[in-house]
Amino acid sequence: MAKGDRINFSTPSGFPEFLPSEKRLEVYLLDIIRRVFESYGFTPIETPAVERLEVLQAKGNQGDNIIYGIDPILPPNRQAERDKAGETGSEARALKFDQTVPLAAYIARHLNELTFPFARYQMDVVFRGERAKDGRFRQFRQCDIDVVARSQLSLLYDAQMPAIITEIFEAINIGDFVIRINNRKILTGFFQSLGIAENQIKTCISIIDDLEKIGEAKVKQQLDKEGISPEQTQKIIEFINIKGSVDEVLDKLKHLSQNLPDAEQLSLGVNEIETVIAGVRNLGVPEKRFCIDLSIARGLNYYTGTVYETTLIGHEALGSICSGGRYEELVGMFIGEKMPGVGISIGLTRLISRLLKADILKTLPATPAQLVVVNLQEDLMPTYLQVSQQLRQAGINVVTNFEKRPLGKQFQAADKQGIRFCVIIGADEAAAQKSSLKDLQTGEQIEVALADLAAEVKRRLQ
């Protein structure tokens, strides 16, 4: 760079940067999500941001995601090391695009150190080379839970997922939502009963998964391009449009599984979803919070059983706010052993962006401080420091003003940050072991003994 050239310090496109009020909202939501995850016994882990590229791409796990590769950038005086620094083949590395594939590698690496079923949560940042646009980022935080077992995993773990989703979103208080549940075996089995070739089924499922994005007409066009006959396409459209209460849809599915040819896989999927629904009900999830939606498929090929998508009622254009499903081969492919798992993911950065724009969530005040000890006299700083510590020890978040400024400006600065209370102590108050407590919300100012100050502030905060 030539001397005098200006550096472009703006953030790269698609890489978000939160203001304090937005970051505090994220931390608040993370605390709620963490609390719910841990109430079900999930334990935290963190995997590296960088994985070997062959891990991320193993058996098509990459899907449609654009991966960011990692290449060393050498300083001018070390260019001779370029060949040594270059990485190819198994040493090529890239940024992780989700949490599930790295989880599989994590389990493979620590197989003999973990207890199974292994239930973990992870709230890390992931990276995808998507086209940056409103609500879509190249770097974003995902909050994931997964349970992985050796050989067999109870379907009741699948049933827990809607219960966890419900608790989180009810605690966040984002309004009405519904968890749409399906089973990929149902879709696979139905396609088999129609005589669709095995090598076409995954593609057909991916096409169905795009129904909400592209519409029914384009789904029909894409199925036609795949070689699906008009008669088969019409039956597929009728099938994914089966609606009704959970029990009505279950009855229709049972009837189909008993009357269609080659319906073994379909019957298995119906039995599984019936078990999951029974578990969801036994866990006390309200009926209004879940439904069976046969158009839900989840595009990633590693899903094999139960799948979920969560929709905010009245804001369907936001897309799924929490999704996931069951997989059978993802973990085992690294170690040659069957290790079924089930999990869900909340794309928290995307969710915050969407909910703020829709005015469903509000940012928090820029600071967690609840009170300012103002500075009237520099010689009273020992008193200000002692009072500040006493308030903190009582559980109150305090800012101490170390610089003396006009009192009105100190009030204005506190109010701008959303701090409600100011404590004012002059020479006379200090001598009498008293203070003035000003409520910036109401304008009220009262005299309070220093010994009673913490209790009075806590009472008013409640």
Automatic annotation (TrEMBL):
Catalyzed chemical reaction(s): tRNA(His) + L-histidine + ATP = L-histidyl-tRNA(His) + AMP + diphosphate + H(+)
Positions bound to L-histidine: D98, Q99, T100, R128, Q142, D146, R298, Y302, Y303
One GO cellular component term: cytoplasm
Predominant location: cytoplasm
Coiled coil residues, start to end: none
InterPro entries named in the record: aa-tRNA-synth_II, aa-tRNA-synth_II/BPL/LPL, Anticodon-bd, Anticodon-bd_dom_sf, His-tRNA-ligase, HisRS-like_core, HisRS/HisZ, HisRS_anticodon
Domain Aminoacyl-transfer RNA synthetases class-II family profile: 29-365
Family as reported in the entry's similarity comment: Belongs to the class-II aminoacyl-tRNA synthetase family.
Protein name stated in the entry: Histidine--tRNA ligase
Species annotation: Tolypothrix tenuis PCC 7101
Lineage: Bacteria, Bacillati, Cyanobacteriota, Cyanophyceae, Nostocales
